[in-house]
């Protein structure tokens, strides 16, 4: 495609995923003019290219969005802004109003202002959680034909509703598509590696719920950024991605326990023993914790939802993204985990020991 000076506006561009998209786009298309809107200014852990312009804006405020769009006059919008509840809030309902306001109403605002501003293409950073947060069933090698789940978590439900709105909006005047990344790792990760690493200090590493052999997808953030660049290129050329959603992952499903063991090993920790906790026992313990926290007005990381989460098999097919977008992961899962641990260790101010390991992946 001709690398003309397209104007790209990226919401949430100072965050973990958004900043990776900015870096990938600036590298692949140096002539593109990239503007970032976010509530928070750029941070050291989420580096932006020097020529990127940052503007403070709130996606829940059409007034601030309109001002930003009038200043930028973007040709293309990448909507990566949103809120992901932390683990203690993931399976509860306490933040439901806030999550829906940001993830759904914020997306609605972005679409409305984009249409009014004459934006030609709109790429939405969705999530695999629009399907897999329904833990009543396992999700084995699922594809995009699997229906959205509107009965899961506040995060999954809000993102599913937003994704449906985005795809419904697609037209010849403003093409839209949605990308569904899996659980992410990489430099600047604030959830996956930190939460698994924290199990060391809490003495939780020997314990696993169920057989520990369930497979799941983990994706390196730069791979997800590549997928966004490909989506932009597609909507500017063949347009075959218009109105479509795509699962984006490393396409290397990994055993859940192995991913934890690999992260701990990078930090020099090996569980001293291994104890399997029956899922049914853990489920009732989760129910007890939920009851106590409901009575006390606090939060808990152990709940019925988190137990199902830890035992679920959840990985998706990457065929559609490969066929239409040409997406393939550049960074493999072992390197992805290593780079993620090195980054987190740097932020903690610790030095990692030498590490050698393999993992049980889906054959």
From TrEMBL:
Alphabetically, the GO molecular function entries are: oxidoreductase activity, acting on the CH-OH group of donors, NAD or NADP as acceptor
Pfam families assigned to the protein according to its UniProt record, in alphabetical order: 3Beta_HSD (PF01073)
Record-annotated 3-beta hydroxysteroid dehydrogenase/isomerase domain positions: 9-272
Q: Which domain of life is it from?
A: Eukaryota
Query: Keyword Protein transport, does the record have it?
Result: no
Alphabetized Gene3D superfamilies for the sequence: NAD(P)-binding Rossmann-like Domain
Does the record carry Coiled coil as a key word? Answer: no
Q: Which UniProt keywords apply?
A: Oxidoreductase
Name any Gene Ontology BP term. Answer: steroid biosynthetic process
Instruction: Kindly give the InterPro entries that the UniProt entry links to this protein.
Output: 3Beta_OHSteriod_DH/Estase, Lipid_A_modif_metabolic_enz, NAD(P)-bd_dom_sf
Q: Which family does it belong to?
A: Belongs to the 3-beta-HSD family.
This protein is called what? Sterol-4-alpha-carboxylate 3-dehydrogenase, decarboxylating
**Species in which this protein is naturally found:** Penicillium chrysogenum
């Amino acid at each position: 495609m001709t690398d003309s000076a397209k104007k790209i506006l990226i919401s949430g561009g100072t965050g973990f995923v958004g900043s990776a998209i900015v870096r990938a786009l600036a590298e692949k298309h140096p002539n593109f003019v990239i503007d970032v809107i976010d509530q928070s200014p750029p941070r050291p852990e989420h580096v932006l290219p020097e020529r990127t312009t940052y503007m403070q804006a709130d996606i829940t405020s059409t007034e601030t969005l309109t001002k930003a769009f009038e200043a930028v006059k973007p040709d293309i919008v990448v909507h990566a802004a949103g809120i992901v509840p932390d683990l203690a809030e993931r399976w509860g309902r306490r933040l439901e109003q806030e999550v829906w306001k940001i993830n759904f109403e914020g997306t609605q605002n972005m679409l409305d202002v984009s249409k009014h501003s004459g934006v030609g293409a709109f790429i939405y950073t969705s999530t695999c959680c629009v399907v897999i947060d329904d833990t009543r069933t396992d999700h084995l090698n699922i594809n995009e034909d699997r229906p959205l789940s509107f009965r899961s978590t506040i995060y999954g439900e809000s993102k599913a509703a937003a994704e449906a709105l985005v795809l419904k909006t697609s037209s010849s005047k403003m093409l839209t598509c949605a990308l569904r990344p899996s659980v992410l790792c990489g430099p600047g990760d604030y959830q996956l590696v930190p939460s698994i690493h924290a199990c060391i200090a809490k003495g939780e590493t020997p314990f696993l719920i169920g057989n520990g052999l369930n497979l799941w997808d983990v994706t390196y953030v730069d791979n997800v950024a590549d997928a966004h660049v490909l989506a932009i290129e597609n909507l500017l050329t063949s347009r075959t991605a218009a109105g479509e959603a795509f699962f984006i992952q490393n396409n290397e499903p990994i055993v859940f326990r192995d991913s934890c063991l690999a992260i701990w090993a990078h930090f020099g920790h090996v569980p001293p023993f291994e104890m399997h906790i029956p899922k049914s026992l853990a489920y009732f313990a989760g129910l007890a914790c939920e009851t106590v926290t409901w009575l006390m007005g606090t939060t808990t990381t152990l709940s019925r939802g988190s137990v199902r989460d830890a035992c679920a098999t959840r990985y998706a097919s990457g065929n559609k993204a490969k066929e239409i977008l040409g997406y393939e992961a550049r960074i493999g899962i072992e390197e992805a985990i290593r780079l993620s641990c090195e980054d987190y260790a740097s932020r903690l101010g610790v030095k990692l020991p030498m590490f050698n390991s393999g993992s049980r992946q889906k054959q």
